[in-house]
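Follow-up to my earlier ticket, as requested here are the two runs.
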Amino acid sequence: MITGIVEPVTILKNARIGYKNLLVGASDASASKAITPNTYERYVSGSGTTTIKFQLATSSTVDFIALAAHTFGTHNSGGTSVGIKYATSIGGALTTLETRAITTDDAFMILFDDIAVAEIALTFGAVSGLEIGVVSCGKSLEMERMIYGGHSPIDLSAKTEYQSTTSDTGNFLGRTITRQGIQSGYSWSNLSPVWYRSHFQPFVESATTTPFFLRWRPDAYEATVYGYTTNDISPSNMGGGSGLMSVNFNVRGYA
């Protein structure tokens, strides 16, 4: 649920990818763990109402804030209400972008029209021990084309490895989950070669080492993945003299 969006929002059907995290510091030293790309190190809250501020190196134009590997949905019974705010200068007055009632621990990516930001803040009330693994803010990559039919939404696409045990006579004795996450494929066609080289290739180069946020259908679904590619990303020329390109890759995500 979203309330109180301050900036006008123009959300298109094209996927948005957040891979350039401009956050460089935090008001609480322990919260600096949340601006690294790994999901293992986490900020852990104290008790009561908390405001955490994250700073950019310099005031920059941004259009997304995203979180992953958090426990806002399950830490409190019924979820947690989070105020997502920004300031145009370090230590300046905070303006609320959204107040969001978070009822799951899924990654999420809020999108808004361009604003100049020097600092963002998260405000929430929680009992001790709420965790935040990743916080990201920056300028997203908007894909040139939509994703069409045949796509498997990643929030519905589990990737689970099991170890099953059976008896000599075939009786089922139990199953252990050895690894779990989510995984899906993303595919685009009719990408102009100039757009690909200018806008998509920088993401390709970043994705070789760094996870990213991807919201596949912003106009209709909240579904967002924080994940990483499972293979190199290489485009194909579609032929016909147009120079248009297609590209596809798999993403495995934290769940």
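Run two:
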Amino acid sequence: MSADFPEVVRIDALGDDMSLARVVQLVLSASVMMIVFSLGLQATTHDATYLFRQPRRLLKSLASMFIITPVVAAVLVQALELPLAVEITMIVIAMSPVPPILPKKELAAGGVRSYALGLLVAAAVISVLFVPAAVELFEKIFKRPAEMSPFTIARIVISSVIGPLAVGLAVRHFWPGLAERSAAPLSHLATLLLIAALLPVQFTVVSAEISLIGHGTLLVLTVFVVICLVAGALLGGPELSDRIVLALSTASRHPGVAMAIVSANRPNQKLVLPAILLYLTVSTIVSGVFVVWLRRRNRANEVDNRQSPAA
């Protein structure tokens, strides 16, 4: 499976006491908490529990996020010769649902708030059990020792998704005026913090990311993202907004969970962090192109339907 890969590119710039992965994880945690909190300021309890009242849509959505993505990752890793860091990245990405900053992107792309937030909450709750089970399953498939405590996943999910969202919902319920005024500025501030903090990290690991682009890595990551996007769009239902939400949710994952899995099982794999950041970059670009294509295709279909003669 794994192709031989030179170990000349290593990320030790920040020393042993504070690894680059730890810095990225802290920055992501702070900014993500603010983003999810700002989403809670704009939502209602009805939005957060939306999918639990729609069991059919819930099952289709979870199948896209929790079954299709891991299966596609496993098939690609088994079938292709990839650098070990890329193999590990695809596996841990597939096991790391609950993309916490995604609802903001989905809403900007035209998604419906209730579905976007409802899917976030449902995935967060289920991931506490799913991630440890998925780690154990992948361990048996790939014959490599691995472990992930449900308590670790619960801590990450609660701190980055459920907790901030619940606090935001509470603020909106008791102080709606304050929530309305604060949501947008806080969201913008969190986004700027995320960008400002990650840019230096990207510059630090850019040489490592470039070194990973060979061996077909970029193509494989692109194919992986495209398959996930298409699966989500197909299972998202007839409404364009719902297809956009599920497509983005299927292709996007939680980098904090991915890094936690790596830290617990492969702490010496220094190239995994650049590989995860490379995946996030590829996913963002390809997802943006896909959403534009999906909208144009939907508009073309609407025009054709209006121009077609009545039966």
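The only thing I checked on run two: The first strand starts at residue 2 and ends at 3. Let me know what else you need.
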